[in-house]
Design goal:
This protein has a 5-stranded mixed sheet. The radius of gyration is 21 Å and the shape is globular. It is an alpha/beta fold and 382 residues long. The chain has 12 helices and 13 strands. It has 3 domains: 119 residues, D-Maltodextrin-Binding Protein, domain 2 (3-Layer(aba) Sandwich), CATH 3.40.190; 83 residues, D-Maltodextrin-Binding Protein, domain 2; 101 residues, no CATH class. The N terminus and C terminus are likely disordered. It starts with 29 loop residues before the first strand and ends in an 11-residue tail after the last helix.
Length: 382
């Protein structure tokens, strides 16, 4: 699968036994909607191709939707294939009945599913690792000091910068398609870090120089996973897609999303996480910043959300984690100290929330502690 990667492949989760293959499924035509961007279109078409292969009697159609979100609204966002504003637009079309399903990167899902929507299907997870693209075939260790390498998140930037401090890692906004154009067409950067699964969907494995295993670079939540979003209550579509659904993948997504939600990750912060179902348990590993100090917990698959929340609670109890989150706001170093502040004048503290990032995080964490029902926080320990 990966000609440029000699390591072992990601252990595939088993799908449910499927007696459906070759059978005629009597249902309405499933109307999929997709943005016209290359990655969004390729992911949607790949899933529909799987439908035709596994459930040949199920009819489906793909409608390409021009992006009506103004370009300036997405150019400053950090995402993989679909921005948050675009997800909201697609969710609105689902709820109104204009389309029945949308294929999305799990990494692009909001912290909570948009109102009126739910995950109908989660196909088996593929390679969840990060890949390095370089047109000359150079691996990261071969790059010249000062080389410019694009990354898609502050998570990747924090880990990469720690390992290769002499490289200039630049955060790319506007999604993978725009980052690819910057790298391949305009040559404004010397290399690009992308989710390995995205390179397969785009058919560009030939310029993948190396893939980073999770013990080296910890991926982001939902990486390597697609989900099919649909309307709440559309059990007909859910049942029709059941042959392509992988329950283990949904467990992993649930644990990782709960972890991300607890980490106050409604913004792009340096948080890595990876969950894997092993038998009747889910094992999840997470960390912040350079992901040097990692924490792993495990628990029953039936309590995947609680396991993810428990992991985040342990990490957030560390002062080092709070420092990592603070430094995410100031990647180039903390701003100069204000003379009035040094003189003891704290009247401006409320006017500049960035000055009080740690205190703000403490307050948010305390609020989350009150909201989440973790009756026994010691239940999910390493």
């Amino acid at each position: 699968m990966w000609a440029s990667w000699s390591g072992s492949s990601w252990p595939k989760s088993e799908t449910a036994a499927s007696p459906w293959k070759g059978h005629v499924v009597k249902t309405r035509v499933l109307r999929f909607g997709s943005l016209t961007s290359p990655l969004a279109r390729s992911q949607s078409q790949a899933f529909i191709d799987n439908i035709h292969e596994e459930i040949p009697g199920l009819s489906s159609q793909l409608t390409l939707l021009p992006d009506e979100v103004p370009g300036e609204d997405t150019q400053n966002e950090v995402f993989t294939a679909t921005s948050q504003s675009q997800v909201r637009r697609l969710a609105g079309m689902l709820v109104s009945g204009q389309i029945d399903a949308v294929v999305l990167e799990a990494a692009d899902l909001p912290l909570l599913p948009p109102e009126g929507t739910d995950i109908l299907c989660s196909p088996p997870r593929v390679t969840p690792f990060d890949a390095y693209l370089n047109r000359q075939g150079q691996i990261m260790d071969e790059m010249e000091p000062g080389s410019r390498v694009g990354v898609m998140s502050v998570r990747a930037r924090a880990q990469m910068q720690y390992l290769w401090p002499e490289i200039n890692f630049q955060l790319m906004h506007g999604g993978i398609d725009r980052a690819m154009e910057t790298h391949l067409r305009h040559s404004e950067i010397d290399g690009l870090i992308l989710p390995a699964a995205a390179t397969e969907h785009l058919g560009i494995q030939g310029i993948v120089a190396e893939i980073f295993a999770p013990d080296f670079i910890l991926p982001g939540s939902g990486q390597g996973t697609l989900v099919v979003l649909g309307r709440i209550g559309d059990e007909e579509s859910r049942e029709a897609l059941r042959p392509l659904h992988c329950s283990a993948t949904l467990v992993e997504i649930t644990a990782e999303m709960a972890f991300r939600r607890r980490m106050i990750s409604d913004m792009d912060i340096p948080v890595g996480v990876l969950a894997q179902v092993q038998g009747d348990e889910v094992v999840i590993t997470g960390s912040t910043g350079a992901c040097v100090n990692r924490v792993s917990v495990n628990g029953p698959v039936e309590k995947a959300e609680e396991v993810g929340l428990g992991l985040a609670q342990q990490i957030l109890s560390s002062g080092e984690a709070l420092v990592d989150l603070l430094e995410a706001d100031f990647p180039d170093g903390l701003p100069p100290e204000d003379e009035e502040f040094l003189d003891g004048d704290d009247d401006d503290l409320d006017e500049d929330p960035d000055e009080n990032r740690v205190e703000t995080l403490d307050a948010e964490i305390a609020a989350l502690d009150e909201e989440d029902d973790l009756s026994d926080p010691d239940e999910y320990r390493p």
